[in-house]
């Protein structure tokens, strides 16, 4: 079994989905939801992957959730990657029963039905003026723009649903008669899907204080057009009171209403679609102008904030500079004192320098005189060196001559030894 919860934005789809999950219906495997925000403090109960896929489908049609007038499912070329992502989500929609929710299903449902066989659609309906006020508070949309958007969303959904597999739930009935509404809703789901569902504790789910854009019926009659009012009453569960069966008037949904009034409803909306289209174009133009002006205002605000921040930074910098100047002034006074002290010391040093200069002059004169003596010594040393060189040359010749004479004497001695070796022994002792 599979349930898709949808309807115009701000129509109670989050509240209804939370009821289904509390009743034991699964959001599917690996489901990750968006965190609660001030405009939806109880949480969105909206799968991130489903939201991303619907955004990609709208982008492929060059549309956005608030700009879907020319959205045509038959002309869209869905990227292969997006189709794979849809298949991946659908394959993980278990265990049964499961339910997924996104207001964008109002326009993208026909594409998802190629991958999900005959799902049960829960169509959340809310007073169009309450929706418009809620969108004005959250997104600053003009009231008439949001009314046209409400009409277009419901027109797309009416063209896509299967009446026998559709349940209409009125937001007002969920808030004002939650027990009766939820009991009837769950019983109707059981009758369509043939499965048992546990009934949740309503005190944990329905918070009437969050019904913050309430519009009385008299005010609705006064503020919206007859055509739009008729479309609202055709879908609103209050119209069930026109049926003779008293049990039907207690239900917060109406398959019988869809079966009986669906052809009339579609025909009536088709008659109004051209007028709404023109209105939507003008409102969308106004909305663009409004958004552009809002962007300009935002840029101006940012510029002013940046300018103020710069002034604060400059002021702080100037303050730091003044402190720095004061500090430098103190340092300058101290340096002046030190300079005066150094000046006195310099005077004493100049006297000492003059005295030292005189001593240096005397030393220079002595050095000059010493230099003269040194030159004389060098000349004497050179002369001495020349003499020494001559001495060593003479000495070398003398040594050579002595060596030569020693050799001659040695030869003479050897000859004498030979001569006296022939003499008698008594003469030999004279040569020992």
Major pleated sheet = 4 strands, parallel
Strand order of the largest sheet: 2-1-3-4
Structure classification: mainly alpha
Straight-line distance between termini: 150 Å
The number of helical segments is: 11
Report Rg. Answer: 57 Å
CATH A-level architecture of the domain at 2-282: 3-Layer(aba) Sandwich
Q: What does this protein structure show overall?
A:
Mean pLDDT is 77; it is low at 215-230 and 237-269. The protein is mainly α and 432 residues long. The radius of gyration is 57 Å and the shape is elongated. The chain starts with a strand and ends in a 12-residue tail after the last helix. 64% of the residues lie in helices and 5% in strands. α2 (48-60) runs antiparallel to α3 (80-91) and α5 crosses α6. The chain has a domain at 2-282: Rossmann fold (3-Layer(aba) Sandwich).
Furnish the topology, listing elements before pairings.
Layout: E1 2-7, H1 13-22, H2 48-60, H3 80-91, E2 98-101, H4 105-112, E3 120-125, H5 128-139, H6 143-160, E4 166-170, H7 171-176, H8 178-193, H9 217-223, H10 226-235, H11 255-420
Parallel strand pairs: 1-2, 1-3, 3-4
Helix pairs in contact: 2-3, 4-6, 5-6, 6-11, 10-11
Short note summarizing the structure:
This protein has 432 residues and is mainly α. The chain has helices at 13-22, 48-60, 80-91, 105-112, 128-139, 143-160, 171-176, 178-193, 217-223, 226-235, 255-420, and strands spanning 2-7, 98-101, 120-125, 166-170. It has a domain at 2-282: Rossmann fold (3-Layer(aba) Sandwich).
Primary descriptors:
single chain; 432 residues; mainly alpha; Rossmann fold; 4-stranded parallel β-sheet
């Amino acid at each position: 079994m599979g349930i898709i919860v949808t309807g115009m934005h701000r129509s109670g789809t989050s509240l209804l989905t939370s009821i289904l999950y509390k009743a034991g219906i699964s959001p599917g495997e690996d489901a990750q939801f968006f965190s609660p925000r001030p405009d939806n403090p109880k949480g969105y109960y909206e799968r991130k992957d489903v939201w991303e896929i619907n955004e990609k489908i709208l982008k492929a049609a060059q549309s956005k959730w608030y700009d879907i007038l020319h959205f045509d499912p038959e002309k869209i070329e869905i990227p292969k990657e997006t189709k794979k992502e849809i298949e991946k989500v659908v394959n993980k929609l278990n265990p049964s029963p499961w339910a997924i929710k996104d207001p964008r299903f109002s326009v993208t449902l026909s594409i998802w039905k190629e991958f999900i066989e005959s799902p049960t659609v829960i169509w959340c309906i809310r007073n169009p003026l309450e929706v418009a006020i809620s969108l004005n508070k959250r997104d600053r949309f003009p009231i008439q723009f949001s009314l046209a958007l409400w009409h277009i969303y419901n027109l797309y959904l009416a063209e896509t649903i299967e009446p026998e597999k559709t349940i209409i739930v009125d937001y007002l009935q969920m808030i004002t008669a939650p027990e009766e509404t939820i009991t009837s809703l769950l019983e109707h789901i059981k009758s369509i899907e043939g499965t048992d569902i546990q009934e949740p504790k309503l005190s944990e789910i329905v918070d009437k204080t969050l019904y913050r854009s309430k519009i009385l019926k008299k005010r609705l009659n006064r503020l919206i057009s007859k055509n739009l009012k008729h479309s609202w009453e055709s879908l609103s569960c209050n119209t069930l009171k026109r049926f003779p069966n008293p049990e039907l008037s207690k239900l917060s949904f109406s398959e019988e209403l869809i079966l009986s009034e669906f052809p009339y409803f579609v025909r009536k909306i088709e008659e109004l679609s051209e007028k709404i289209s023109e209105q939507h174009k003008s409102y969308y133009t106004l909305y663009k102008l409004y958004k552009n002006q809002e962007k300009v205002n935002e840029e101006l605000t940012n510029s002013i904030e940046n300018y103020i921040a710069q002034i604060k930074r400059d002021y702080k910098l100037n303050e730091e500079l003044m402190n720095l100047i004061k500090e430098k002034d103190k340092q300058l006074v101290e340096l002046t004192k030190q300079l005066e002290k150094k000046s006195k010391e310099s005077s004493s040093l100049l006297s000492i320098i003059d005295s030292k200069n005189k001593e240096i002059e005397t030393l220079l004169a002595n050095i000059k005189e010493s230099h003269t003596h040194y030159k004389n010594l060098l000349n004497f040393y050179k002369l001495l060196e020349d003499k020494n060189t001559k001495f060593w040359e003479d000495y070398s010749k003398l040594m050579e001559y002595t060596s030569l004479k020693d050799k001659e004497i040695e030869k003479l001695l050897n000859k004498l030894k030979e001569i006296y070796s022939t003499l008698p022994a008594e003469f030999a002792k004279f040569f020992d």
